[in-house]
């Protein structure tokens, strides 16, 4: 049974591995016996056992005395989920007994590890981001639909800042609880507390909140001015899934407006120039006054699809001997959407199905994209005008012009979600996958 460990927990455990433990783990996960590993690394077999036992411990597996290989199956399954490039199809079949397609596809949704062989570098996007994060008072906004690589890009930008000596904090607003979002005061206390814990500061947020004067935004501001920003090195602060705040209008308006103010303050106050902000979002919060919104300030980065050559290169990294014709077959269905492309390559690599079989079932409830498509479907069920607008677009065989029945205000949110592509005077489904799937799902509306 695979140990319950999410991507964040796995990455934290992985980062605690020593270089020697990683060196031993690779052949271990390939199924090599201890004697072969020892010979390969020119060390004693007892050292191999020691490194394996300590590695297992870091991932929460207890090796009993004399049973140092007892957890090989569990480790193989864990790495197949979170770092599939470390294990081959044959090893997974041997130790787990089946291809864990649903587990592997789930792992593709998160951030791609910094040293992953399956990350496609997009230098035209990454380089400007890495340059921007080093500018005083930077506000970098990464806008893209779900599962298109925002978090992976964020990780690389923060890593670049870290290599320059910056302190870094990455907050995912998905980690908030209903209690944290019950009002602005509680949310800002949560925000300051998490920043404090990640940076390892000793100051007590509760104590500051109790002694400080003013409203919660002033308390948050003075906390940063007194305890967070005066440290020696600049701070790169990344906020992922900012969209989580949008249903909470008071919090979203005040907090996002505060981020805009901090960015503006950096122009006249050197202390605030020490803060570099990275905001990740899918949609734009349109309830804010344009002069208070952070979504029209700073530097906006829009992630683009993978190109034909990038998909071909990625297929080669997955060990597939594809040519341009096969790449085009896949892209005709899912374009260059990073997650959709990688999910397909992973399935074919694992030999779960052929490319032809995958494409035949792709736009159905029985295909490998069912969870991705259902997530979009659930969003549409809560917004009938948006669903109606999408129906008009997917039912047409040509781009739908903007008119009284399909205005731009209806189409822009669909573009934010990545479901349609906007043209100069109309809209079309972003991918054939969406056209076929939503023609069926929306047909009765």
Key features of this structure:
single chain; 445 residues; alpha/beta; five-stranded parallel beta sheet; three-stranded antiparallel beta sheet
Question: What would you note in describing this structure?
Answer:
With 445 residues, the protein is an alpha/beta fold. It is 52% helix and 8% strand. The protein has 22 helices and 8 strands. β7 and β8 form a beta hairpin. α2 packs across α4 (45-58). The longest helix has 17 residues, at 249-265. The protein is globular. The two termini are 43 Å apart. Residues 98-107 have low confidence and may be disordered.
Rounded to the nearest angstrom, the distance between the terminal CA atoms is: 43 Å
Q: Topology as H/E string?
A: HHHHHHHHEHEHHHEHHEEHHHHHHEHEEH
Largest sheet: 5 strands, parallel
**Which class of secondary structure composition applies to the elements?**
alpha/beta
- Total count of strands: 8
Low-confidence stretches: 98-107
Strand content: 5-15%
Q: How many H/I helices? A: 22
Strand order of the largest sheet: 2-3-4-1-5
The share of residues in helices is 40-55%
Shape: globular
Radius of gyration: 24 Å
- Indicate the mean pLDDT: 87
Tell me the layout of helices and strands.
Blueprint: H1 7-15, H2 19-29, H3 34-41, H4 45-58, H5 72-82, H6 89-96, H7 101-107, H8 123-132, E1 139-143, H9 150-163, E2 167-172, H10 184-199, H11 205-211, H12 216-228, E3 235-240, H13 249-265, H14 270-273, E4 275-281, E5 299-302, H15 308-317, H16 324-334, H17 338-349, H18 355-361, H19 370-381, H20 384-395, E6 400-401, H21 408-416, E7 420-422, E8 426-429, H22 432-441
Parallel strand pairs: 1-4, 1-5, 2-3, 3-4
Antiparallel strand pairs: 6-8, 7-8
């Amino acid at each position: 049974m695979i140990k319950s460990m999410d991507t964040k927990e796995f990455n934290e455990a992985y980062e605690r591995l020593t270089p020697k433990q990683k060196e031993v783990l690779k052949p271990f996960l390939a199924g090599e016996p201890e004697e072969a590993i020892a010979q390969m690394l020119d060390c004693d077999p007892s050292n191999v056992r020691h490194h394996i036992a300590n590695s297992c411990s870091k991932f929460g597996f207890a090796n009993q005395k004399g049973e140092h290989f007892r957890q090989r199956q569990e480790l193989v399954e864990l790495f197949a989920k979170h770092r599939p490039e470390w294990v081959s199809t044959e090893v997974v079949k041997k130790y787990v007994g089946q291809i864990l397609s649903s587990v592997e596809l789930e792992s593709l949704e998160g951030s791609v590890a910094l040293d992953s062989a399956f990350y496609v570098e997009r230098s035209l996007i990454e380089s400007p981001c890495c340059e921007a994060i080093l500018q005083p008072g930077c506000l970098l906004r990464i806008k893209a639909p779900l599962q298109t690589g925002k978090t992976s890009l964020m990780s690389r930008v923060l890593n670049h800042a870290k290599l320059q000596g910056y302190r870094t904090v990455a907050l995912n607003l998905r980690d908030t609880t209903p209690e944290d979002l019950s009002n602005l005061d509680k949310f800002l206390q949560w925000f300051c507390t998490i920043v404090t814990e990640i940076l390892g500061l000793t100051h007590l947020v509760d104590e500051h909140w109790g002694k400080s004067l003013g409203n919660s935004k002033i308390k948050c501001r003075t906390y940063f001015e007194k305890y967070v920003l005066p440290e020696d090195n600049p701070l790169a602060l990344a906020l992922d899934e900012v969209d989580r705040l949008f249903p909470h209008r008071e919090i979203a308006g005040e907090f996002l407006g505060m981020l805009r103010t901090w960015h503006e303050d950096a122009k006249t106050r050197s202390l605030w120039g020490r803060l570099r902000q990275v905001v990740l979002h899918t949609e734009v919060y349109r309830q804010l006054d344009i002069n208070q919104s952070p979504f029209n300030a700073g530097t906006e980065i829009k992630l683009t699809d993978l190109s034909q050559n990038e998909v071909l290169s990625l297929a080669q990294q997955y060990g597939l001997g594809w040519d341009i014709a096969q790449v085009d077959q896949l892209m005709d269905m899912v374009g260059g959407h990073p997650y959709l492309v990688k999910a397909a390559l992973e399935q074919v690599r694992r030999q779960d199905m052929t490319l032809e079989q995958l494409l035949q079932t792709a736009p159905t409830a029985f295909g490998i994209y069912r969870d991705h498509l259902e997530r979009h479907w659930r969003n549409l069920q809560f917004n009938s005008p948006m669903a109606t607008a999408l129906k008009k677009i997917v039912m047409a065989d040509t781009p739908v012009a903007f008119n009284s029945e399909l205005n731009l205000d209806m189409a822009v949110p669909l573009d934010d979600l990545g479901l349609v592509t906007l043209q100069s005077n109309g809209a079309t489904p972003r991918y054939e996958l969406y056209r076929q799937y939503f023609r069926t799902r929306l047909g009765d509306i």
